[in-house]
Amino acid sequence: MQADENDEAYTTRGKEEEEENVSREEALGHQTPFLYLCNKLAKRGHIITLFAPKTAQSKLVHFNLYPNLIKFVAVAVPHVDNLPPNAETTSDVPYPLHPLIMTAMDLTQGDIESLKADLVFYDFTHWMPSLATRLGLKAIDFCIVNSAMIGLRPNLFQELLLGLELVGMPFLVALKPPIGFDSVGDALPEGFEERVKGRGIVYGGWIQHQLILEHPSVGCFITHCGSGSFSEALLNECQLVLLPNVGDQFLNARLMSKNLQVGVEVEKGEDDGLYTKESVCKAVSIVMDDENETSRIVKSNHDKIKEVLLNKD
Fold first, then answer.
1. Active-site residue 215, yes or no?
2. What spans are recorded as compositionally biased (Basic and acidic residues) (predicted)?
3. What does the pLDDT read at residue 60?
């Protein structure tokens, strides 16, 4: 799970007018939806320049469906005091340092003041509307809500990992360090790494969710139900286990488990609202059991919704 802020995209005239559509991204977690938007615009003949930090570009280029129309341009992230070297997005730093990334991004305003555009798509950039007005552009707030930037509590971090250990199946966990820890390795349960050696990996960096979810070996996706993960989950074959943490994630989880019935939510205590390793294990075991009635129902509903979402007619 990861999230980033300070995303914005700029788009201008279509190809037939020999002008460019301009899109700019400085943060990683929201960039996939913005690139999806760029692909949609390119499909209609627009030329797009996508601005993003160099390291982020390498993780996005595989999803550029129109390389002849969408061009990546590197954005230099300015240095600010106390920001670690080479940090370019909020995925590169712990949560307490996120404001420094935002401060650095604010310093890039001058990079776009000379651009010619018709439309500006932006997310959290507070100065974008006033800049767009000054440049004679139209500004559209394309907000990607993603609340995964807040790390788990240490006890919940460990309960999740111990629950996966109980399941007994191979697993990959991608999480930010829990609150109060600098790395995931420092927060692992005692003896955990040795017990799951050879079948379990815990990774604290950024991963390509879409590429992993598309792999035929992946049978279950435990999602925090943020907006980005919500859409990625519905477009893939994996069975879904829902584990919301904060904000809109709870609404998305209820929609997926109660209304759409495409996944199983991890049970939480009525008094404290916390999940346990046993409840994590139970939810995963249900969806991974082909003979379980609930598993069959959520898989059938998921397949139907995916078919509708992928229908190009």
1. no
2. 13-26
3. 82
